[in-house]
Design brief:
The chain has about 450 residues and is of the alpha/beta class. About 45% of the residues lie in helices and about 15% in strands. It folds into 4 domains: about 5-125, Response regulator (Rossmann fold, 3-Layer(aba) Sandwich), CATH 3.40.50.2300; about 150-310, P-loop containing nucleotide triphosphate hydrolases (Rossmann fold); about 315-395, Helicase, Ruva Protein, domain 3, CATH 1.10.8; about 400-440, Orthogonal Bundle (Arc Repressor Mutant, subunit A), CATH 1.10.10. Helix 18 packs across helix 19 (about 420-425). It binds adenosine-5'-triphosphate. InterPro entries: AAA+_ATPase, AAA_lid_NorR, CheY-like_superfamily, Homeodomain-like_sf, HTH_Fis, P-loop_NTPase, Sigma_54_int, Sigma_54_int_dom_CS.
């Protein structure tokens, strides 16, 4: 059977490439019906991949579609086909989590090859049982890239933790490699032949907690036409990776605590609890101790999860690893784009060194991927870096001193607690991070 691809058209219908014989012979196109939401169409068709087609819709609408699908279906690959491509759309799409980006004029063969490769490699990872579809997204170097002392210590810690089968809690800012660390723990553990299944706890509304985590029997509710295994059962014998646990609802927290205590699950509409063997690795980019103090995270659940603890450092805490991370990204991107880029010019590398990377390694990876879309030659020069990045560096050279001083004083007063400092300044945490990057404000102390 051909893989099915759901077309989500933001504007107009991409009838030209859908009719291309090389695509229509090898893929089954499926669509939303008039008035049907994307989520309903996803549930109805269960497509292997979603292809968002921008048409002439505004970038914000296209990006909102991509983010919405990625949030609700984090394991399904999403490709974007942009009729009116621009650098800001490409960067926005990568940030929104798009798995691949194509622009007009579209080469049907290249699109088909990427779709087949994406679906093929995910299936291969699944059947090998080394990494689940979820954890294999992005690049998997087998260990954290970086030769700094802090990275070597963390690589050593991950190896030691991997073999003991304890529950692990991984903390650190967004993009620092928490999911990658979870994948390393799983692949180096004795459970490596069984699957690792990720659960994005932030995307688990109360109405879906039980069906998503524990599955359901036929007839458990209207629309439950076939028995479906939940995420814990899919990981039987392997590892469950609970991502973004700091954003879980209290119902989800209660349900997960119960599974940990009982090591058993009860599918909706099912009978007695079924015993289950799994290892739990959890992650959050929020400070769990603060969440407990604020009363939004259960202390009993925290103690169940916080058995082994790994804190992933922010990239600004180990800038000496920038060159090896850049080299790793270039290797991966050369493979992905079929290019032979050798490296960065000194000016381009210096520019990367001046940025404080609030989005950490993910931001670095995305920046370099966006640079490839600009088709660099064998060396990436400063002018090849995305214009937005160049502008951001330029702006930081002409910053208003009073804003910088206000940020610094809020950070000092709060002992560099970003959430509290952001509240003091009446900003969101993301705005504070953006402004810290803009003003090149870097915390000098290291995490304990
Ligand atoms: N030390 C590293 N070596 C190689 N790749 C890395 C490293 N750290 C992060 N990455 C890469 O950066 C990207 C983001 O990493 P990952 O998704 O693991 O971050 P995260 O901390 O889980 O982010 P979030 O909190 O937003 O979910 C991935 O492509 C990952 O492979």
């Amino acid at each position: 059977m051909h893989p099915s691809v759901l077309i989500v058209a933001c504007d107009g219908r991409p009838s030209d490439f859908m009719a291309d014989p090389s695509l229509s012979r090898n893929l089954t196109w499926v669509h939303t019906t008039p008035g049907e939401s994307v989520v309903a169409a996803m549930d109805r068709h269960q497509p292997g991949l979603v292809l968002v087609y921008s048409g002439t819709a505004a970038n914000s609408r296209v990006l909102a579609s991509v983010s919405h699908i990625k949030r609700r279906f984090p394991t399904t690959p999403v490709f974007l086909v942009a009729r009116e491509s621009s650098e800001s759309l490409a960067i926005g799409a990568l940030k929104a989590g798009v798995d691949d980006y194509f622009k007009y004029p579209l080469r049907a063969k290249a699109l088909l090859a990427q779709i087949e490769q994406k679906l093929g490699s995910d299936n291969e990872n699944l059947s090998k049982g080394t990494l689940s579809k979820d954890a294999s997204k992005g690049y998997f170097p087998g260990k954290l890239v970086g030769e700094s002392r802090i990275m070597e210590e963390i690589n050593g810690l991950l190896e030691r933790i991997a073999i003991v089968d304890s529950t692990v809690l991984i903390t650190g800012e967004t993009g620092t490699g928490k999911e990658l660390a979870a994948g390393i723990i799983h692949t180096k553990s004795t459970r490596t032949r069984q699957p690792m299944v990720s659960v994005n706890c932030a995307a688990l509304p109360d109405s879906l907690v039980e069906s998503e985590l524990f599955g359901y029997e036929k007839g458990a509710f209207t629309g439950a036409v076939t028995p479906t295994r939940g995420r814990f059962e899919q990981a039987r014998g392997g590892t469950v990776f609970l991502d973004e646990i700091g954003d879980m609802t209290s119902l989800a927290q209660a349900k997960i605590l119960r599974v940990i205590e009982e090591k058993a699950i009860s599918p909706l509409g099912g009978g007695d609890p079924r015993p289950l063997d799994f290892r739990l690795v959890a992650a959050t980019n929020r400070d769990p101790e603060t969440l407990i103090a604020e009363g939004v995270f259960r202390e009993d659940l925290f103690y169940r999860l916080n058995v082994a603890r790994v804190h992933m450092p922010s990239l600004r805490d180990h800038p000496e690893d920038l060159p090896s991370l850049v080299a790793h990204a270039i290797d991966c991107l050369n493979l992905k784009f079929g290019r032979r880029v050798k490296g960065l010019s000194t000016a381009a590398m210096d520019a990367l060194g001046q940025h404080s990377w609030p989005g950490n390694v993910r931001e670095l990876m995305n920046l370099l991927e966006a640079t490839y879309i600009n088709m660099p030659a064998d060396t990436i020069h400063f002018a090849d870096l995305p214009v937005q990045f160049q502008r951001c560096l330029e702006d930081s050279r002409h910053m208003p001193e009073n804003e910088r001083a206000a940020i610094l004083s809020a950070l000092m007063e709060t002992n560099w607690n970003k959430s509290t400092a952001a509240r003091k300044l009446n900003w969101s945490r993301m705005t504070l991070y953006r402004k810290m990057a803009k003003h090149r404000i870097v915390e000098e102390r290291r995490h304990p």
